[in-house]
Amino acid sequence: MIPLKKIVLLFIVGFSFAVNAQNTYKNWPDVIRKNNASWFGTEEAKKIAENVLLYQRDIGGWPKNIQMQNELTPSQKKDLLEIKKTTKETTTDNGATTQEMLFLSKMYAQVKDERYKESFLKGLNYLLEAQYANGGWPQFYPLKKGYYTHITYNDDSMVRILNVMKEVAEETDFYSIKPSKEIVAKTKTAFDKGIDCIIKTQYKQNGVLTAWCAQHDEVTLLPAKARAYELPSLSGKESAKIVLLLMSIQKPSPEIITAVKSANIWFEKTKITNLEEKRVLNDAGKIIDKKMIPVQNASPIWARFMELDNNEPFFSDRDGIKKKSLDEIGAERRNGYAWYTDEPKEVLKKYASWAVKNGVKVSETASEKKKTNFLTVAQDGSGDFTKIQDAIYASPSFPYEKVTIFIKNGTYKEKLRIPEWNTNLILLGESKENTIITFDDNFSKINLGRNSTFYTSTVLVEGDDFSASNLTIQNASGDKGQAIALSVVSNRVKISNCIILGNQDTLYLSGKNAKQYFKDCYIEGTTDFIFGGATALFENCVIHSIKSSYVTAASTPEGTAYGFVFKNCKLTAEPSANAVYLGRPWRIYAKTVYINCELGKHIKPEGWENWSKPDAEKNTFYAEYNNSGEGFQPAKRVSWSHQLTKSEAEQYSIENILKDTVLNWYF
Q: Is 0.85 surpassed by the pTM of this model?
């Protein structure tokens, strides 16, 4: 009997991606996903790029599962040069070709080596040439005999290709390399053909549109078999990314809208909420057993393979014989394959707002339960409520699934409270510029004593697992002292694509052991306009100072690993604001770190101030890494601040900062 050295109980499918080992270079995709843009201009990156160029075949494609970052011997380099003219194993499976193209794009953005551009364009041409006339793509090109010729949705291969076509066709800034107008036109045609293929391969079950198989016959377009245990079926995994791609299309056709609606119904119908996966790991972290455990009200999961006629999950060993449950197949396939997935959760999460945006009545395709989980606020009376707070009051307490309050454009003069019992709540605005929540309380107006500040917020969030996006949240009292726009005193909170406006004390972040995440936001204020004791990560945000003062005033509790962390943010200011500190300590154990941020000239050379607290100089942790701009003057910073090393900065990952929370909730 194998001793169970390490047991992970009730391990939710899909969570493991967020807790990978911290070795950045363990896997090739980890290198490509590096957020530090400047790294792609280093000698280390250039060395890896030489390997990427070597592995590319002259036809334009790459083989799969290659650790491009590993150093090559002279003999290996010689072998690669000899096979470049061949088409051996060129594929788009497991991310091959599309991920190398992304790497080269990131390289070219930093180093204008024309070889990177040429290689990227060869890869793009390879993808264009590999497309079937019916719009699909095979797994290998040139064609490799066997199931590899099928139209391949497996492991999201075709979706990855179509995302490349979409970015190039729409001439976005996602890729630094800009093809000719002729190539752009070809990618637009390829994308449209690919979407048409997706629409035509959506499976009809007794005349009703459902989802997709992992692969479809390239001639008949019907679900097809791949490996012995990958039988014709409806896929809970691959179908999810297909639908998310369809949902990303602006001004979708009636056919696309029908496809998304039908798939959403199917996902609702086939979700499993009475099972959770238990994984048993050995000391090396390898899975040695999997079991499905019956529970109540579990987070939804989906089977990877479902019967074409009745959606029943099935499982298979390498003998190709269908089984009804996971424990009926051998350990090798049971433990070495992903039989369940939670990827469709993202479709269900985004569907309601997509439906409203595209004129689809949610109630036409959803259950009564879904109706209570999606409420609309509109000042013109076209929604369920005219006031946001009324919709919050109407939301269920401690719901098992997310509750979305969709707020149509308008200026809502309301003072909002999301109570502790309104967990899993989403405030979703129609647009961040035109969906405005505003109120004008301030310290003097409240007049409740020395703690009046904390009563001034326009929006107060007490419920865990809260998110807000596409909104403006404003304290409109003006420069009249302390006046909070947004107060967050709860855990697992995500604020994205929002505008947060105020003056002094704009944003208050607190809560016991609270972890909070701000992404793609604009935050504006005067003195201490980001303050509090929570652990908070800010990514890709604009932090704007209205006058000379202090950006942050952290009160990080003693012993807390992270306080406020700003990554890839831009600090700007009004022209009159020319002397702004990065922060001062509200409490002496304050922690604030800026990484890869652009600091305007308004930032004072010394950077930090001790707020007349000598003890703070011994106990605070104020640090920077790889910042840029006129305000980045590390040599002039106060002596008690820090400049992080590369290895220290790498510890400031989203996984580390927000650990001990449900990490996949943040994505």
A: no
Count structural domains, the chain.
4
Q: How confident is the model at residue 25 (pLDDT cuts 50, 70, 90)?
A: low
Q: Give start and end residues of each alpha helix (H) in 434-518.
A: 443-446
Domain boundary among 493, 515, 537: 515
Sign of CA dihedral 644, 645, 648, 649: positive
The DSSP bridge partners found for residue 567 are 539, 595
Distance CA 287, CA 218 (A): 36
Q: Which pair of tokens denotes residue 72?
A: 């090559």
Nearest in space to 57 (alpha carbons), one of 152, 143, 126:
126
In a domain, 597, yes or no: yes
Using CA of residue 61, residue 221, residue 325, residue 242, what is the dihedral sign? positive
**Helices 98-110, 157-169: inter-axial angle, 10-degree rounding:** 40
Taking the C-alpha atoms of residue 641 and residue 440, their distance in angstroms, rounded to an integer, is 36
At which of 459, 492, 515 does a domain end?
Answer: 515
- Whether residue 587 is predicted with pLDDT greater than 90 in this model: the reply is yes
Give the long-range contacts of residues 213-217, CB within 8 A, separation 24 or more.
Answer: 213/153, 213/238, 214/152, 214/153, 214/154, 214/238, 215/139, 215/147, 215/150, 215/151, 215/152, 215/153, 215/154, 216/136, 216/150, 216/151, 216/153, 217/150, 217/151
Over residues 598-627, mean pLDDT: 96
What's the half-sphere exposure (Cβ side, CA atoms, 13 Å) at 242?
Answer: 37
pLDDT band at 466 (very low <50, low <70, confident <90, very high): very high
- Active-site residue, from 156, 283, 528, 660: 528
Residue 352 counted as domain residue: yes
Q: Which of 158, 156, 167 is CA-nearest to residue 240?
A: 156
CA distance linking residue 538 with residue 516, whole number of Å: 9
Tell me, yes or no, if 528 is annotated catalytic: yes
Taking only the tens place, the pLDDT of each residue in 530-562 is: 999 999 999 999 999 999 999 999 999 999 999
Range of the domain at 178: 36-201
Q: Which two tokens stand for residue 533?
A: 């004791």
Whether residue 18 is contained in a domain is answered as no
Q: What's the 3-state SS for 85-150?
A: CCCCCCECHHHCCHHHHHHHHHHHHHCCCHHHHHHHHHHHHHHHHHCCCCCCCCCECCCCCCHHHC
Question: pLDDT tens-digit profile of 383-438?
Answer: 889 999 999 998 888 888 889 999 999 999 999 999 999 999 999 999 999 999 99
Q: Say whether both 605 and 457 belong to one domain.
A: no
Is the bond into 142 cis (omega within 30 degrees of 0)?
Answer: yes
Regarding whether 252 and 188 lie in a shared domain, the answer is no
